[in-house]
Input
Amino acid sequence: MSRHAPRPAGSLAPVAAIDLGATSGRVMLGELVDGKVVLTQVHRFANGAHPLSDFEEAAAPGALAWDLDGLWAEVRRGLALAFAQRPDIASIGVDSWAVDYALLRDGERLGQVRHYRDPRNERAVAQLEQSFSRAALFGRNGLQFLPFNTVYQLEAERGEGRLAAADTLLLVPDYLNWLLTGAVRAERTNASTTGLLNISTGTWDAELAGHLGVAGLLPDLVEPGDTVGMLRPELAHELGATGEVSVTAVASHDTASAVAAAPLGSPRSAYVSCGTWGLVGVELPRPALTEEARQAGFTNELGLDGTVRLLKNVTGTWLLSESIRYWNESAAAGTTGGVTLESLLPAVEALEAPAVLIDPAQERFMAPGNLPERIVAAVLEAGGDLPESREQILRIILESLAASFATEAFAAAGQGGFVPDAIHMLGGGSQSGLLCQLTADRAGVPVFAGPVECTALGNVLVQLRTRSGEPWTMGRMRALVRDSVELRRYAPSAVKSPV
Output
């Protein structure tokens, strides 16, 4: 069907997905065409941390923020391009990274949206734990301890004055929805990442919110698929919309959208949402709140249709991209030659599996810089042979990532009381055939690769389901994904080590 041709009777109007990640953002068009979901990228733009001093002269040294005003300008630019292509867009949905928030007073934002890596959060951990231990917090919110969780950010805020002045707190996608509609709402899947949502009841935790001073600031909760509001008339005119456009709450935490689009074949399938960082987990009907789950570092976050995403945050392709970046930076300085990952992979694939792996989650690998040197040091410390080439280092990285994915997938499934029958590799990491094959080999179960654009696809699917007016089950949505995306199956050729 031509993009500009009239829609057949009974077909669905296109929708727009605003997908904001920590390093980039996109505006995508989504449409159901001949029983398949078709995505079109309309606009892509950069994102990242900024020194707070870029916006506020009196900022503390090292303080970090997001440029939400710049992102909002890019979102409007992308939507204008989308409406230029399809003036009949019927709905807009927003997903983004988790935990960060805007504070408002009388409809005006108070200062900047602080970045989750802001050093103030680390200092606030001990303060909050004087009142709520980590074990007590896990029992309430089911979340893995991470110092950038919203509850620690708010503990830091308590001493800085903005909370006392605010009347509303909105997470990033809820803030974008407010800019689009003027409606103040909080979408439940993203709210579950804050630590302020009781994981057992799915409602705000009144005692914890009261302690942090935000009890009166938290909006009413909405579900994915609910209508947040209508696009403000002045924005509709600016963007070129020709009719009424609804703004639909999607599974607005980007991982929730990604898992909603995961074409899981059974309730015993595991998933790896793999980009710079990886999220490895399973979908459960209820949270896993055992001490074993807490000690193992699992987190319980809400997903589409009342599901729970039991997962663990692990290192993803960061080790690969940062090693390549370092080698190329060295090449620019004249010490080595420049390389690409693609150019090295054939030789990497031909190598034997290394005898010694690294733990990708070690703190030593988190900072940028000379990662290859740190990897070599870790191998030698573990009694391995000295890696003598870039290809050997990359093979160690890929095998180590695969082992980590396989181990954590089985551990997550174990918390649910089953053994995984397959692993679904989602996102950018699914494009690496070698990583998928190695994961299958380590796990001893098939790995299904795709979709790559899982987050935007999940965003679009929720909107299309709402627009259809029909009760699409998650099974039907996942069948639609399988019909729309070419998946690649990697059968295990050998189990390198038991998991």
